[in-house]
Known about the structure:
The protein is an all-alpha fold. The protein is 80% helix and 0% strand. It is built from one helix and no strands. It has one helix at residues 7-46. The protein is rod-shaped. The termini are far apart.
Amino acid sequence: MFFGFEWYWWLMILATLVIAIPIKIKFMKWWSKREQDKKKEQHGKWGDDE
């Protein structure tokens, strides 16, 4: 036992992190691209090419 958890709980936590971190990174990249596209769309809508 480590911090009161059995070994299989640590495997579950580790598996969750291994799955969640790449998904989060992919989501953050997608969100950033989406926000940039929104800004470009707003500028193009009014004819401002800044």
